[in-house]
Automatic annotation (TrEMBL):
It is found in: Cytoplasm. Gene3D superfamilies: 5' to 3' exonuclease, C-terminal subdomain, DNA helicase RuvA subunit, C-terminal domain, Nucleic acid-binding proteins. Belongs to the RuvA family. This is Holliday junction branch migration complex subunit RuvA. Has three domains with a flexible linker between the domains II and III and assumes an 'L' shape. Domain III is highly mobile and contacts RuvB. It comes from Lactococcus muris. The RuvA-RuvB-RuvC complex processes Holliday junction (HJ) DNA during genetic recombination and DNA repair, while the RuvA-RuvB complex plays an important role in the rescue of blocked DNA replication forks via replication fork reversal (RFR). RuvA specifically binds to HJ cruciform DNA, conferring on it an open structure. The RuvB hexamer acts as an ATP-dependent pump, pulling dsDNA into and through the RuvAB complex. HJ branch migration allows RuvC to scan DNA until it finds its consensus sequence, where it cleaves and resolves the cruciform DNA. Residues 147-196 are annotated as: Domain III.
Length: 196
């Protein structure tokens, strides 16, 4: 299995790009080929996933590992194939998609091409809560910006106890309103809020 290719971007079409790696041109399906246009004839690094079927061997490419990870989660859902997953990635900023899945927003999910109500419900069923690590990192980053180390430590401790990032995000604003608390006091306040 391939992890990534590094080579010269030599061709861009409406559905795929071609990357020349050691004089071999790899056709790679990507979410938005024209997003690569400013890198034409330059060396690029593209993360890939290979799909092998009876009638075809296809490569799907991504700008980074996070996008590749999202793609792999999407194709694990019954009813979503690689092309649908690429269309979903192309149509969204990915943060909105993750939030819609975690908050069971079926209406939002059905706006994607090829995603009906049944597939949207399957996405929620299969993927809700699976993006916690990413959401947690964003939440910790946001609290760190405010330099509230006690709150950051409290959130990390609560996650270590098994609380989901989605649960913590709901009470984060209320916790941020509290000032000059220790990590322990933030944890106690968070637990009280979640028990309501």
């Amino acid at each position: 299995m391939y992890e990534y290719f590094q080579g010269q971007l030599v061709k861009i079409t409406p559905t795929y790009i071609v990357v020349d790696v050691a004089h071999v041109g790899y056709l790679i399906n990507v979410a938005n080929p024209y997003a690569w246009s400013n890198l034409m004839n330059q060396e690029v690094k593209i993360y890939v996933h290979q799909v092998i079927r009876e009638d075809a061997h296809s490569l799907y490419g991504f700008t980074d590992e996070a996008e590749k990870s999202l793609f792999l989660r999407l194709i694990s859902v019954s009813g979503i194939g690689p092309k649908s997953a690429l269309a979903i990635i192309a149509a969204d900023d990915n943060t909105g998609l993750v939030h819609a899945i975690d908050s069971s927003d079926i209406k939002y999910l059905t706006k994607f091409p090829g995603v009906g109500k049944k597939t949207a419900m399957q996405m929620v069923l299969d993927l809700a809560g699976k993006f916690d690590a990413r959401a947690s990192a964003e939440m910790v980053k946001a609290t760190a910006k405010d330099e509230n180390l006690a709150l950051t430590e409290a959130i990390e401790a609560l996650q270590a106890l098994g609380y989901k990032a989605t649960e913590l995000k709901k009470i984060q604003k209320k916790l941020e309103a509290e000032v000059d608390l220790t990590s322990e006091e933030y944890i106690k306040a968070a637990l009280k809020l979640m028990m309501k």
